[in-house]
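Contributing new records

If you add data, match the layout below exactly. Sequence lines come first and carry their own label; structure lines follow with theirs. Keep one chain per record. Anything else will be rejected by the validation script.
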Amino acid sequence: MKKSLIALAVLAASGAAMAQSSVTLFGIVDTGVSYVNNATGNDSSKYGVGTSGNATSRLGLRGTEDLGGGLKAGFWLEGEIFGDTGNAKGFDFKRESTVRLSGNFGEVRLGRETTPTFRAGLKYDLFGATGIGQFMGYKDWAGTGLADGNTIRKDNMLSYSSPNFSGFTANISYAFDEKANQATLGGNGGRYVGGNVGYDNGPLSVTAAYGTLSYGNVGDRDEMSIGASYNFGVAKVVGLAQQIKYKPNAGSSDKFNNYMLGVSAPVGGVGEVKAQYAYYDQKGNDTKAQQLSLGYVHNLSKRTALYGTVAYMKNNKNSNLGLQAKGVNDGSLSALGKNQTGVQVGIRHAF
């Protein structure tokens, strides 16, 4: 009898806890076939089964606990998965690993997550920063090799996001320059500071962002951007202007100015067509590149879609930008100044 009472008490206690908190398992599996030409030294093509052509494949856990009085605690753990190989190299939570506290004051996060500069631009990339059609402005243009040198994500970050004030929001983040980075780079190597401000109301969206990443005794990378979109109903227009400047402690600065313009339109209530043009003015390399991407997504349901993308990269002079077809081509190009064409078709399923 005592054991039964104890068991009932445990169940009652766990039920009360469950009523105040929730944990969700979520993810996306996106796998398809890719083809990219001029990808090897002898101008040969690459083709095969790859991943993340339309959306980055991922697996994650997120949860919240209601603390009362409008205060909530939560966490988010998310890692990339590879449908073509089943994560042969193992699984981690490098897409996001944060604990958070939110309320009427906004939200505070601690851990590894996307930077406010990348988050601002992601809102306007019609190809969602993945696949051969993606806008490629967010990269380590100077080839520094520093971990997270593209400033897409950062470790050891403290972030604050404001509440929504009639469409206006803001975010500011600080990534600490910890001893491991200081030992390698010196100074404040690895430190990131950035923020964004945005306005989203009805069909209009505008976001401006600025961030700086320290390379320690080598110098800094400054990044600024402004993006906007307007949904006319029959079509949505997006645009983005970005400048990345490397400022070495000795010598002159190198600039990389990148621009993107795109349009998407619904088709028959179940599909979407999209076209995007990007211009990469690589002043630091005294060269340029242009990218044209066309895509179609056909929704079989709210969670499942078929997609196809065609992209063309035209490189001038010494430019070596290559198309990103994850699992097939990592952006490699057969030679400087070569042009490249790619095709992707696949299926995306969310859960």
